[in-house]
Amino acid sequence: DGGITQSPKYLFRKEGQNVTLSCEQNLNHDAMYWYRQDPGQGLRLIYYSQIVNDFQKGDIAEGYSVSREKKESFPLTVTSAQKNPTAFYLCASSSGRDANEQFFGPGTRLTVL
Amino acid sequence: GENVEQHPSTLSVQEGDSAVIKCTYSDSASNYFPWYKQELGKGPQLIIDIRSNVGEKKDQRIAVTLNKTAKHFSLHITETQPEDSAVYFCAASIQAGGTSYGKLTFGQGTILTVHP
Fold this sequence. Notes:
Chain A is mainly beta. Chain A is about 0% helix and about 50% strand.
């Protein structure tokens, strides 16, 4: 089946530790995105990538880092510099410039203790 | 940058009634307006979208209207069913040739509850 997978579904980390969230897609999409979702708020864009080896900061990039070494993969690292990392993280992809629909993964709920 | 406001934050209706969710946007260059449905513990799924060259679009029980002059758009769900209960998000984007390249700005979400 084609789609976007995120792992793990639930993740617990101690304060001060870096953690990497996985996002893989087999849709052959060029563009990939990371969003953060907090209760009562919409999705906020962290980083996005239009093509392999290139990515741009979104609206709330501070304390996060990404890489795009392969078309299929767009991992997100939540660093210790992120002041409030506990949230639901969503990865999405879209096929390209003129294709509008973003397809979302199931999300990873990160809890920092 | 773009700002999208969504109302109401919660909406409760009886099965069979209609539900309307409204969004306003700030950037007049935005030309693509999708609506997403998110069920508990899952990622959002696109349910309908509209481009700025169209004033209304309908898909079975779901319709979206767009008023470019007023910069607002609305989601209409008719004959609601309990399975319509979810969180609904509107979004706005500049597509095709704009600088934002598919970057969506989302509203805050509406929790819709349909009572049997």
